[in-house]
Amino acid sequence: MRNVMLAAFLAFAALPPEAAGAAELKQETSEAFDYYIRVTEDRMAEELHDGRAFLWLDGFAEPQRDKLNVQLRQGEIIVERLETLEKEKRIRVPNGLIHHWIALGFIPNTTLQQVLARTTIITKSSTSRM
After folding, report:
1. Where are the domains of the chain?
2. pTM of the predicted model as reported, rounded to 2 decimal places
3. Greatest Cα pair distance in the chain
């Protein structure tokens, strides 16, 4: 079974991008993504200005926040799907999907400098060079 899976993977990997279903990014998709980012950043700025939660965890009621903090300190990774809505409706992205996630982890006995030294920050400008 393992050999069959390996053979299937290698056969798929050998296909040219066109055969594998690669697509060209359309202008309307890129514009919708940029719009989603603007709406998200505007919401975040409004929350900060209004004195609401700075950290994602702070947006939860105390019992839920305490539970999440315990999970983090026990070494769990918290992953949550997010979605920015506009006027309580989904933002349409023609010919595209936006994956908007947050992940949290607690690393004891570590400084921010140590974490950043081992972290790659991915930005839209860095992905355009890939």
Report:
1. 25-127
2. 0.67
3. 58
